[in-house]
Amino acid sequence: MDTLNLITKRFTLVCTFSFILYVAGVGSIAQKRSLETTPISALTLSSVLEPVATGLSSPIYVTNSGDGGNRLFIVEQGGVIKVLQPGLNTPTVFLDISSKVLSGGERGLLGLAFHPQFSTNRRFFVNYTRTGDGATVISEYNVSASNPNIADTTETVFITILQPFANHNGGMIEFGPDGFLYIGMGDGGSANDPGNRAQNINELLGKILRIDIDTPNGPIPYSSPPDNPFFGATPGRDEIYATGFRNPWRFSFDRETGQLYAGDVGQGAREEIDIVTLGGNYGWRVFEGTNCTNLDPTLCNPNNFVAPIAEYSHAAGRCSITGGYVYRGGMSTLPAGAYVYADFCTGEILLLQGSTQTLLLDTTHNVSSFGEDESGEIYVVAHGGSVFRIRNQANPQGVDSVGLFNGGPSQFFLRNSNSVGVADITFAYGPGAAGWIPVTGDWNGDGTDSIGLYNPSNGGFYLRNSNNTGFADIVLTFGPAGAGWKPLVGDWNGDGIDTIGLYNPANGVFYLRNSNSTGVADLTFLFGPAGQSWVPLVGDWNGDGADTVGLYDPMNGAFFLRNSNATGVADITFSYGPAAQGWVPLAGDWNGDATDTIGLYNPANSVFYLRNTNSFGFADVSFLFGPANAGWTPIVGEWDGL
Hints:
By secondary structure, the chain is mainly beta. It contains one helix and 47 strands.
């Protein structure tokens, strides 16, 4: 990459970009039609960068492990990988190989890829330039068998590739939908590929490689897929998948189509986006984008090379593309199928939709990479020390707010914002002074939470699909009557509909049901101690779209949260608020980031203390709502469906 050793400059941008655009698809350079100086339309999205982690040391990549934990793994150029738990903003060290890494300029720890079966085999791979000679090393590590947030330090080297110069090291590695490991290699550096390595099929430099890391070849810990273009008796290196790259700085696979998108950094005129296919030759050093470089003038036949699907010039201070991802997330953050990428020098974040390139955000950051979480949402890595999530303010995610239930007259008081004020919605529902317990959930999947009641004396649930006075829309019984079990509500299977559950404090067992109907539990498991008067709570702690359970120990003010509805130890443990004060625990998505976090309600003064991360600290939001010392019960929901 001609990126990390550049001096960043900011340039005044004009309303029209001198991008060169191409009809989407893969074909020869001669088949492409340029649309010179095309005006860039304003994107109808209110996109912002939401900080996820700050204070990092030259971050260069972010990814996920695909194991269902929804953690983010952040690669720092100096040789450290950090892991960020969902709902937190401070990562911890996952692996430190800085003693092995030659870092600086375009060298360092450059890539990270988790095996498709990482959740069971614990394998992951890194790409770094080693101390001493700066050679590229692709090697394997394993996560600890006893701690999923720490890696073992035993290394297995798979490939070592000598680098003739300090720049153009490539660095991206990723598993494709075929299960093979793809490796991006630059042309070896200097300028204009002096060794003509990108076109040399006997060299691994200037290529996209593809190897099978699950099948050794004798003493070699990997083999090459037999359909690689130069496999076996065919002249050329077995590992090569595609040729003709200058410095592919970040590539990715479209989750829906499986297509491989790569951003290839240009020399001094053009930056390009390629769809990389098996056996394709993408032109460097004969072509830079669609420009003949005249380094090999007799070879400038565009029919012999694959053209980029889009390219742009170095006008207005642009100099180096950072490849990104095709958006396939479920939160409508970006248009589905749009490819997001950036220019390192200007900080522009751009979208490619068909043949149209659009300015999404003009930032002051040197964007060193993009990344995806497990749900397909896209993150931006700023080399200055931060990771951001792209958010669309015009399409906000649901924000939960509080309410109160007065059991005497059986009245509900709901507030549409977490702030001081009077109730926005007030109504009566159910019998008064009956000892029934309020529950809340989205019973019909319409995106709005409504109330319900649980009668502990007969095990009956009475659920209402609107927040107003009326009769129950859903009536069912579940569990034993009069046993002191606690009612729960959550979207246990991620289908967008909340269903009921019960917790037995006497034995610490949870009983969850995937439909709001009479029947037996679909999920039964033990979590936490028996007979300790701990309080159950429910939330989507890791943002994966499914709710899981947790417990609150009031005697110590400690929370114990679990990322799966199964027997096991807590995934997240922390203290928050005072101990043994009678405060009531809460959980909700207070900031609309699709992750639930905790809070506390003090009935003595009717103040709510809400926290935006599941960690020790002070309240992010605190406010008074309702009367003090009234014995009212706090509830949480997305009452307005916004």
